[in-house]
Amino acid sequence: MERDPSALDLLGEEAHAEEWAGKASCLRRPVPKPRLPLRTEVITMESKQWTVQIFITEDGDDTHARAVLTTGETSTVTGQGTARRNPVDRPIPEIGDELAASRALDDLAVRLHDVASDDIVHLAGPVEA
């Protein structure tokens, strides 16, 4: 049986072709041609830049981090994180910095989500006339 190049073969592997001989025509359909849009619409997107600064301080075996998100509208959201070195571990300050910073960023993410949730509750929904 010769294949129609414009048809989509729904049978799968060639091994099943003989098994479905005579029934194959009911499992083939023409491949639809993509439709072009009737008109072209230009959509412009606004580019924004938000900045996160991480401030790290060490006090003995404790490392504290503060992650501050500043939006373009000068709003800020702050997250806090702390790491404490176990006294039996070797003193490797980078590990404390990484843990405290990651915890501060995690806290920042939760707080930013809370801000968005509050905005949805108070600002979203239909426009009141």
UniProtKB/TrEMBL annotation:
One Pfam family this sequence matches: Rv2632c-like
Region (Disordered): 72-92
Biased composition (Polar residues): 72-83
Domain of life of the native organism: Bacteria
Protein name (Swiss-Prot/TrEMBL): DUF1876 domain-containing protein
